[in-house]
Design goal:
Number of strands: 0
Family: Belongs to the MenA family. Type 1 subfamily.
GO biological process, one term: menaquinone biosynthetic process
Structural class: mainly alpha
Radius of gyration: 22 Å
Order of helices and strands: HHHHHHHHHHHH
Oligomer: single chain
Main location: membrane
Shape: globular
Helix content: over 70%
Largest sheet: none
Number of domains: 1
Number of helices: 12
Catalytic activity: an all-trans-polyprenyl diphosphate + 1,4-dihydroxy-2-naphthoate + H(+) = a 2-demethylmenaquinol + CO2 + diphosphate
Keywords: Cell membrane, Membrane, Menaquinone biosynthesis, Transferase, Transmembrane, Transmembrane helix
C-alpha cells in the first residue's frame, strides 16, 4: 500500500500537536492565575497607598505567585494521574491525564517549574533589599509554598486527600501572599493588613470549595476526602456561604478601621492609632 501523501501527514502531525498542546493548556489552567495574582495585587495596592510601592518587587511577586499557581495545577493533575483518579480523568477535567506518557512528562515539568520559582523567588528577595535576617526568614515560607503546592495531591499522604486543602489555601493565598507582598515593599508589619489578607484567603478557599462541590461524587469514590466530601453537599454549601460572609465581614471591618484612621490623622493600623 502507498503511504499517506505529505498533506495528510502534515494534517496528522498538526492534529497531534494541537491535542498535546490542548492537554498541557488544560493542565496549566491559565484561568486560575487571577486567583494567585489577586492577593499580590491587594498587598501591593495597600503598600502603594502608604507610599511604599516598588514596581520591581510587585512584578517579581506576581511572576512568582503565578508560577506557584501553575506548580499547584500541574501537581494536582500529576497526583491524580499517579493515584488513578479514574472518574476525574474520564470526565475530562484532567484531559492531559489520558495520555499514557503524561506522568513522566509532568514530572519533568514540575521540576522545571520549581527551578523557575526558586530563581524568581530569590530575585524577588534581592529586589526587596531585605536585611540578612529577613532574607533568611522569607526562605522558609517560600520553601513551604513549594512543598504545599506539590503535596496537595502528591506523596504518600497528600493533605488534599484528607480535607486540609482549605486551610492551606487560606494560609498561602491569603495571609502569606498579601502580608508577604506588603512587607517586601513596606518593610513593616501592620495589624490591620490581616483583615484584607484573611478576606483574600477566604475568597480563594471559596473557589476551592466550588471545585470540590463539583467533584464531590468522584472524589468520594476515589478516596479523596476533601472538606466538601466530609461535610456532605448540604453542609458544604452552608460552609461556602460562611466563607463569603466571612470575607465580606473582614473587608467591612477593614474599611471601618481605615475610616477611623483617616479621621484620627494616622495610618490605618489600629496599633498605630491606639
Amino acid at each position: 500500500m502507498m503511504g499517506l501523501s505529505p498533506p495528510f501527514l502534515l494534517a496528522r502531525i498538526t492534529m497531534t500537536d494541537i491535542s498535546r498542546s490542548q492537554a498541557w493548556l488544560e493542565s496549566l489552567r491559565p484561568k486560575t492565575l487571577p486567583l494567585a495574582f489577586a492577593a499580590i495585587i491587594v498587598g501591593t495596592v495597600l503598600a502603594r497607598e502608604q507610599g511604599h510601592f516598588d514596581p520591581r518587587v510587585a512584578l517579581l511577586a506576581l511572576i512568582t505567585a503565578g508560577l506557584l499557581q501553575i506548580l499547584s495545577n500541574l501537581a494536582n493533575d500529576y497526583g491524580d494521574a499517579v493515584k488513578g483518579a479514574i472518574n476525574r480523568i474520564a470526565s475530562g477535567r484532567c484531559a492531559g491525564c489520558r495520555r499514557g506518557d503524561y506522568p513522566q512528562q509532568m514530572k519533568r515539568a514540575l521540576i522545571v517549574t520549581v527551578v523557575l520559582i526558586c530563581l524568581f523567588g530569590l530575585a524577588l528577595l534581592c529586589a526587596a533589599r531585605q536585611s540578612v535576617g529577613d532574607f533568611i526568614g522569607f526562605l522558609a515560607p517560600g520553601g513551604l509554598s513549594i512543598v504545599a503546592a506539590i503535596t496537595y495531591t502528591v506523596g504518600t499522604r497528600p493533605y488534599g486527600y484528607i480535607g486540609l486543602g482549605d486551610i492551606s489555601v487560606l494560609v498561602f493565598f491569603g495571609w502569606l501572599s498579601v502580608l508577604g507582598s506588603w512587607y517586601l515593599q513596606a518593610h513593616n508589619v501592620e495589624a490591620a493588613i490581616f483583615l484584607p489578607a484573611t478576606a483574600c484567603g477566604l475568597l480563594a478557599t471559596a473557589v476551592l470549595n466550588i471545585n470540590n462541590l463539583r467533584d464531590i461524587d468522584s472524589d468520594r469514590q476515589n478516596g479523596k476526602n476533601t472538606l466538601a466530601v466530609r461535610l456532605g453537599p448540604v453542609n458544604a454549601r452552608r460552609y461556602h456561604a460562611c466563607l463569603l460572609l466571612g470575607a465580606l465581614l473582614c473587608l467591612a471591618l477593614f474599611n471601618l478601621l481605615a475610616l477611623h484612621s483617616a479621621r484620627a490623622g494616622c495610618l490605618f493600623s489600629p496599633r498605630r492609632c491606639w
